[in-house]
Design a protein that fits this description.
This protein is of the alpha/beta class and about 625 residues long. The chain folds into three domains: about 60-200, Gcn5-related N-acetyltransferase (GNAT) (Aminopeptidase, 3-Layer(aba) Sandwich), CATH 3.40.630; about 215-265 and about 525-630, Aspartate Aminotransferase, domain 1, CATH 3.90.1150.10; about 285-520, Aspartate Aminotransferase, domain 2. It is about 35% helix and about 20% strand. The chain contains 21 helices and 23 strands. The protein has a seven-stranded mixed β-sheet with strand order 10-18-17-16-13-11-12, with helices on both faces.
Length: about 625
């Protein structure tokens, strides 16, 4: 205190000290406690005395001496690289207030700020705090991101309340909001501890997390989804994705069907981390590995044997189109025939063979060469509900005058996902199997997007009671977003010569590990039943919603792939954009993007599913009114 009084005890213009002031003047002085609006005047007084800089240094000495129990330092070697200065507000005893957080320039963007906050809350003086509070200027984007992301990592609220308005500051300054993060209950504290335990001192810089320039400058114009969902995503868990601004998005897209078990499912992640930490082999081409052995054994035991399916297993390149290419190639090799029958609005991949059996004209045009040796016939419902389109296929195969050479195979999706969520009925699928068997044509079921439980059963064709000759799987097969593809075929079709069809990344061991762990979801029927129940819940809610709102649209789907086909072809895209504004990722499908496609994770909770349906309803209403949040 002596230092402070001496610094302020300066002489005025008359040369007299404050102690020699006239007694009458002193009698006019009143004393009161400081209020919020006095801050600017207090700062100006100290500044006018010429002592502000010295007082600032003195203030930090006081903080280190008397408030050291609520201050935290970070050192790298002997260098101070980070600091959190805070205190426990007397008028808000459940809060721990961060007054300042500072990082050395070379440490910024490495995750140290998050670590500092977690460690600061673990100080003995702060362990009973239920709220973390701080004031942040409206133009301080870095601090705002820091606190918002910290709240996300703790899975708690981040309230942003008006606190210090701009007029309270003695110079030009943005208003400051009070960030109130919490409640910091046991679960939040556990999350903080996990975050601390998982962090390292060698975190690499993330770069400018809010800047999309690098993508726009260097990535090809072919990029697509990022144009509909303009955010830079950083973390994800379960049904939620979090961007670099800390905003949470409910995911009704699931990586186009890749993430059936949600983002970062613990049982799968733990198996992968354990394998990598023990230096499990990552790449073996098609050499034998323990990872592949365990997957084959589990897939036979958990999936094939209980369903009475006898299939050989081929691992082509790691993507869905690789599986389709291998299936087409095998069918032609085995039968000695060239032509493959596909269906209107089908989608099987973007490489040339897969494109040839794809219906979308825009995608096909990208090939740049003729797409031959295929023929497209009408899918179920393509010519109206009253027409059995298989009559056409049967006639073409039976009539020698049809001009159709006997095909090697027919390739079909039981639900055309990209084509607009077009659902083949069970009787249609059964008849298709009968026709192909009658004419000695192989049946290929492309289960890449709607397999692995998307429709309820593991295989989408199970409900029809059919056994395809060849089945292709990918997307959610690995269960974790790692590329993995599989072709299943009847043993008598295994006529490959060694190495006749290969690829560098067949046998992706980390994906075998996650795929094996994912099979644990299918050791009983609880997930299958849950998918069917949630699918009914969503379908009924959507039908009721559309009826109440008077929107002309059709709801169709199976399990947790559901499409809303709007009569107004532009409407689905507008609803998808409105959903994104409201914190939800959902895409469109169909030849004109006229279908809003719901593709949430199979493990999504009913509460999260209902929240997503609420957002869709709000977005439909806003689209009908021509409203958007960005314009509000």
């Amino acid at each position: 205190m002596t230092g402070t009084m001496m610094l302020l005890n300066t002489k005025g213009k008359t040369g007299k000290t404050a102690g020699s002031a006239n007694a009458a003047d002193a009698a006019n002085v009143r004393f009161r406690a400081a209020r919020r609006e006095d801050g600017a005047a207090m700062w100006a007084l100290v500044r006018s005395a010429g002592t502000l800089e010295v007082n600032s240094a003195y203030f930090y000495l006081l903080l280190a001496s008397d408030f050291g129990h609520t201050c935290l330092l970070a050192e790298r070697g002997k260098k101070l690289v980070g600091v959190v200065i805070g205190y426990r507000p007397p008028l808000d005893p459940e809060a721990a207030f961060v007054w300042q957080i500072g990082l050395a320039p070379e440490e910024q963007g490495k995750g140290l700020g998050q670590r500092l906050l977690g460690e600061w809350l673990n100080l003995p003086a702060n362990r009973d705090a239920r709220w973390l509070t701080a004031t942040v200027a409206l133009d301080n984007a870095a601090s705002r991101r820091l606190f918002e992301r910290f709240a996300v990592s703790c899975a708690v609220r981040c309230e942003q309340l008006e606190h210090f308005t701009a007029d309270l500051f003695p110079h030009e300054h943005e208003a400051e909001q009070l960030f109130r993060i919490g409640p910091l209950d046991a679960a939040a504290r556990e999350a903080i501890q996990r975050s601390i335990s998982n962090s390292t001192s060698n975190i690499q810089p993330m770069g400018d997390i809010a800047d999309m320039t690098v993508f726009e400058q260097y990535e090809s114009e072919v990029r697509g989804y990022c144009r509909n969902f303009p955010a830079v995503f950083d973390t994800a868990k379960g049904a939620w994705m979090i961007d670099t601004e800390g905003r949470r998005y409910l995911d009704f897209f699931a990586g186009a069907g890749v993430l059936n078990y949600g983002h970062n499912p613990d049982r799968i992640k733990e198996a992968l981390v354990e394998y990598l930490m023990r230096d499990g082999i990552t790449h073996t081409l098609d050499m034998y590995s323990v990872a592949k052995q365990h997957f084959i054994e589990q897939f036979q035991q958990v999936i094939l044997a209980p369903r009475g399916l006898n299939y050989k297993m081929q691992f082509p390149g790691p993507t869905g189109t690789n599986a389709v290419e291998a299936a087409l190639k095998l069918a032609r090799k085995v039968t000695g025939r060239e032509r493959v029958v596909s269906f209107t609005n089908a989608f099987h991949g973007m490489t040339l063979g897969s494109l040839a059996v794809t219906g979308n004209g825009f995608k096909r045009a990208g090939a740049g060469v003729p797409l031959n040796h295929t023929v497209s016939v009408p899918f179920d419902g393509y010519m109206g509900e009253q027409v059995d389109t298989l009559d056409y296929l049967q006639a073409m195969l039976t009539d020698d005058g049809s001009g159709m050479d006997k095909p090697a195979a027919v390739i079909v999706e039981t639900v055309q996902a990209e084509g607009g969520v077009n659902v083949a009925c069970m009787q249609w699928l059964k008849r298709l199997r009968e026709i192909t068997e009658e004419h000695g044509v192989l049946l290929i079921v492309d289960d890449i997007q709607v397999g692995c439980g998307r429709t309820g059963k593991f295989f989408s064709f199970e409900e029809a009671g059919i056994v395809p000759d060849i089945v292709t799987l990918s997307k959610s097969l690995s269960g974790y977003g790692l590329p993995l593809a599989l072709v299943l075929f009847k043993p008598e079709l295994d006529q490959w010569a060694p190495g006749e069809h290969n690829g560098t990344f067949r046998g992706h061991c980390p994906a075998f590990i996650t795929a094996t762990a994912a099979l644990s979801f299918w050791q009983n029927d609880w997930l299958s039943k849950a998918v069917q129940a949630k699918g009914r819940l969503a379908t009924e809610r959507l039908q009721k919603m559309l009826k109440n709102l008077g929107v002309k649209a059709e709801v169709r789907g199976r399990g947790l792939i559901i499409g809303v086909s709007f009569e107004d072809v532009a409407f689905a895209g507008q609803v998808s954009a409105a959903c994104f504004e409201r914190g939800m990722i959902i895409e469109t499908a169909g030849i004109n993007d006229e279908v809003l496609k719901l593709l949430p994770s199979l493990t999504i909770s009913e509460e999260e599913l209902s929240k997503g349906l609420d957002i869709i309803e709000q977005s439909i209403k806003a689209t009908m009114k021509g409203d958007s949040l960005s314009a509000a």
